[in-house]
Write a structure and sequence with these properties.
Elements (H helix, E strand, L loop, with lengths): L14 H5 L2 H10 L8 E6 L17 H11 L4 E6 H4 L3 H11 L3 E5 L5 H14 L4 E5 L1 H5 L1 H7 L5 E3 L4 H13 L9 E4 L5 E3 L27 E2 L2 E2 L5 E4 L2 E2 L10 H5 L4 E2 L2 H13 L4 E4 L8 H13 L5 E6 L6 H9 L2 E9 L3 H7 L5 H14 L3 E8 L6 H13 L4 E6 L7 H8 L5 H4 L6 H4 L6 H16 L2 H11 L3 H11 L2 H13 L2
Parallel strand pairs: 1-2, 1-3, 3-4, 4-5, 10-13, 13-14, 14-15, 15-16, 16-17
Antiparallel strand pairs: 5-6, 6-7, 8-9, 11-12
Helix pairs in contact: 3-9, 5-6, 11-12, 12-13, 13-15, 16-20
Length: about 525
């Protein structure tokens, strides 16, 4: 295995002191003197924990990990990356992969839906190599840093927030045997089991300065699937054109994670990455920004520059319903945008205000109409039901609203309260969420809030809605007409027919939330 980089000698790990005999501790402290001149940092994107369900569990490349790994590689750090779900690896296969890679540091990017799988991997690899430094990052660890270290003795360090510079400083610190107090943006276990949190790291202000994520680090290809439905037909990847979001939606933890600061890349920088990816054979792209269309002028500038490059590509993005009009959507369509995702959320202004969306149902209608008029191939409307005091009548109104607006695909979600969101904090304060019980789970509000319509009932309402939506004769006719006037829609149809049974079953499970 790797030359010893133990943490017991660095003030940042009492895990060994808690679990190993004193003789082993002394041996590890001797081994610290044989630190390697180079440190390998391996990354894993864990699969979903058993029983978890998400719309896109293995559809898109893990850009967060790729940004960190590429940043380290550019600083001459040896790196490797595993997307466990995309490779279809079991827990044992993931552990075998770690053994083969033989890193000194293992980083796992963890969401609430993958937290238990991450803990399982950490435990098993630590059993084989107690010298391995295990690091967790992403949303779930950022908001649960102390709780994770208190409950998971196999985890050594938590990276809070953005990880590029933190990963690099952590690597150098371990390589030199220096105190981890020097590394901003981490939480770790110090001497005597004391948990230490260093100061917050400054956000990366100039996101143009970061290297493009090296997708060749991933030994797999992606097809962009949502609940099993294939949404891309050519070589596909995801892109990030900005970081952060200035809005304060109650169900989202992004503002807390990125501190409410929106940091866009320059249009020239984005197009340069697309040109490079085009040369690598990529033809379809999904922008996974939290708010791609926040600045419509930037979007128009991007579209016009992209058209000048004459690249035969197609791309998809999300948008708020209150910041783009017909002219912007038309520019997007002419530049190759084929699918747009709108966060419509609800047909009830009272519920929208509760979510702090700062939009109206009428804006949702107008945006969908404008996108259709502009020639957008596929319009997705995303909705959330199950707010703490949302009535059955209000839920039905939203379901009916989704039938009326100009969308092709409705996406219904039962309200979830992620750790780090204002909604989580509110439900904890009201006694509906027990932090010690629910911190490792995706908490659906109707499952914990006595004033909400029961979870099973909401799920059933959504399921019945989907059946009505897709067997509506008028809708079916209009969708068929659009199908034969859009080469993009036709290509999607034929791509999904190949795996029709699998797609239908995945969609069925998704809309029933079981």
């Amino acid at each position: 295995m790797s030359s010893a980089i133990t943490l017991s000698d660095l003030e940042n790990c009492s895990r060994l002191a808690l679990s190993l005999p004193k003789a082993h501790i002394a041996e590890n402290r001797k081994m610290i003197e044989r630190r390697p001149t180079n440190v390998k940092f391996s990354f894993i994107q864990p699969k979903l924990s058993e029983g978890a369900l998400e719309m896109c569990p293995n559809a898109w490349p893990p850009l967060g990990i790729l940004y960190c790994a590429t940043f380290l590689a550019n600083e001459s750090v040896d790196v490797s990356v595993l997307d466990q779900a995309a490779k279809g690896f079991t827990t044992k296969q993931a552990v075998d992969w770690v053994r083969k890679e033989d890193p000194a540091i293992l980083g796992l990017s963890v969401l609430g839906s993958s937290s238990r799988e991450a803990a399982k991997i950490a435990r098993l690899v630590k059993e084989e190599n107690s010298e391995l430094c295990i690091v967790l990052g992403n949303y779930h660890p950022t908001f649960n840093a102390e709780r994770i270290l208190e409950n998971c003795l196999d985890i050594d360090v938590i990276i809070r927030g953005e990880g590029e510079y933190t990963c690099l400083e952590l690597t150098r610190c371990l390589q030199k045997g220096e105190s981890l107090k020097k590394v901003d943006g981490i939480t770790y276990r110090g001497r005597g089991g004391r948990i230490v949190a260093t100061p917050e790291r400054r956000l990366v202000k100039d996101v143009n300065s970061l290297p493009f994520p090296d997708r060749s680090l991933l030994d797999c290809e992606y097809a962009s699937r949502i609940f099993g439905v294939k949404t891309a037909t050519r070589k596909f990847t995801s892109l990030l054109s900005s970081r952060g979001c200035p809005f304060q939606c109650t169900f989202c933890a992004c503002r807390h994670f990125a501190r409410g600061v929106w940091r866009p890349r320059s249009v020239e920088n984005i197009v340069k990455e697309i040109e490079f990816l085009y040369s690598e054979g990529y033809r379809e792209f999904l922008f996974v920004d939290d708010n791609f269309t926040l600045n419509p002028r930037r979007v128009v500038k991007f579209c016009r520059l992209l058209r000048k490059k004459s690249l035969s590509i197609e791309w998809f993005c999300d948008s708020r319903v209150d910041n783009c009009g017909f002219d912007t959507f038309r520019e997007m369509v002419k530049a190759g945008c084929r699918t747009i995702y709108f966060g419509m959320e609800s047909a009830n202004q009272r519920i929208l205000d509760y979510y702090r969306k700062r939009i109206t149902p009428e804006q949702s209608k107008i945006s969908a109409q404008n996108a259709r008029k502009a020639g957008m191939d596929i319009i997705v409307g995303s909705f959330i039901v199950g707010a703490p005091d949302e009535t059955r009548k209000e839920i039905r109104k939203t379901l009916q609203f989704a039938q009326q607006v100009e969308i092709d695909v409705p996406s219904f979600n039962i309200l979830c309260a992620p750790v780090g969101s204002p909604l989580w904090n509110d439900l904890v304060a009201r006694g509906f969420i027990d932090e010690d019980k629910h911190w490792e789970e995706n908490v659906f509000v109707p499952q914990v809030c006595p004033t909400a319509v029961p979870f099973e009932e909401v799920s059933s309402m959504i399921y019945e809605y989907f059946k009505a939506f897709y067997i509506n004769p008028a809708r079916l006719f209009s969708e068929i007409v659009r199908m034969f006037t859009s080469s993009f829609r036709l290509s999607l149809l034929f791509s999904n027919l190949v795996h029709l049974d699998e797609t239908v079953e995945t969609v069925r499970r998704g809309v029933q939330f079981k």
